[in-house]
Amino acid sequence: MLLDPGTKPAVSQATETTGFAFNWAAPEHALPLVLTAVAFLVWLVAFKFRKVWAALFGINAAIVAAYTTWSARNNYWMPEIASELAAEVDSLFNLVLFLVTIFFVATQAVLVYTMVQKAPEGGRAKSVHGHHILELVWTVIPGALLVYVALAQLPTWAKMKGQTAGTLVPVGYDAATDAADLLVTVTGKQWEWRMRYADPSGSKPANPLLWASTPAATDVHMVNELHAWQGAKVRMMLRTTDVIHSFFLPHFRFKQDMLPGKTIPALLYTDKSNINADGTERLWEIACAELCGGNHYRMRGKVVIHPDRASFNQWLNDQKSRQSARKESLAAANNTPAIPAGNEE
Q1: Residue 243 pLDDT greater than 60, yes or no
Q2: Are 98 and 54 in contact (CB under 8 A)?
Q3: Band of residue 205 on the pLDDT scale cut at 50, 70, 90
Q4: Strand order of the sheet with strand 225-229?
Q5: Domains with residue ranges and CATH for the chain
Q6: What is the spatial distance between Cα 218 and Cα 49, in angstroms, rounded to a whole number?
Q7: What is the pTM (predicted TM-score) of this model?
Q8: C-alpha dist (Å) from residue 239 to 23, 282, 333
Q9: Rounded to an integer, what distance in angstroms lies between the CA atom of residue 18 and that of residue 166?
């Protein structure tokens, strides 16, 4: 469990009674102050000379275009890719980024060109009426590109939903054709993620959608940790008990909103393990990507992909044993029968 108890750090009496004081001589403040002064001077110059504004717009557009293109080519701003499906999502992202960059450069070039032109005689701009051919061109081309992007993402979207009907268009979930290796219910709740696994010693639930909403007494529960093994296809049943949450796995490029009163099936491909050869673990985070209340920032967890199925089964059986021991301990302390696991959620 990754959630902290939310305790407030101790504050000394001197700190509480001392007012705010900005240390102008602190070394860490030097660079921001210098940059602020330079920006102010540049603004003064640009305000006086109009062509300086045009130069600044041009330089800014060139820097942004070059940096974003370089970052996309080198995966500079993306986390580690955890599956082949994540690579497909990155390809779609880069496609959209490429198209947007072209139009960004074109519009900025037109903006800079208009800024460096001389003012019209008389100081008044000339009215320009519509140009039907030009309007048709800048409507049809973006429209065709949007249709292309919409069609290009369908195969990836169908895989993310775990389609098994041989179609590229997402269809309804069919338990009879579900070839997933592992079934997990993920429930969003302010402010945590609750994972539930079917009893490893039993058979797979016949109706996963029904099982997602009616826990079994022998299910294994976990908080803020999603476990699987390398090479598994994980069928996730996404639910929420209160408000809208968004289940976001950055390393898998997976994000799905959770809607109250609805169970949403999704499929997770685990092509890589985040456990190193020396036993250390690379952090693959779970985050909520939907503002869900005051403690939204605390709704964090992690994904653990075991190197093989055997190590995952060992972990799951250990969790089952610990869960049973806790129930027996609580029942003995209260002198009451153990609470079924299905009523804990």
Answers
A1: yes
A2: no
A3: confident
A4: 225-229, 300-306, 284-288, 245-249, 254-258
A5: 31-117+135-152 (no CATH), 175-343 (2.60.40.420)
A6: 75
A7: 0.71
A8: 49, 27, 33
A9: 68
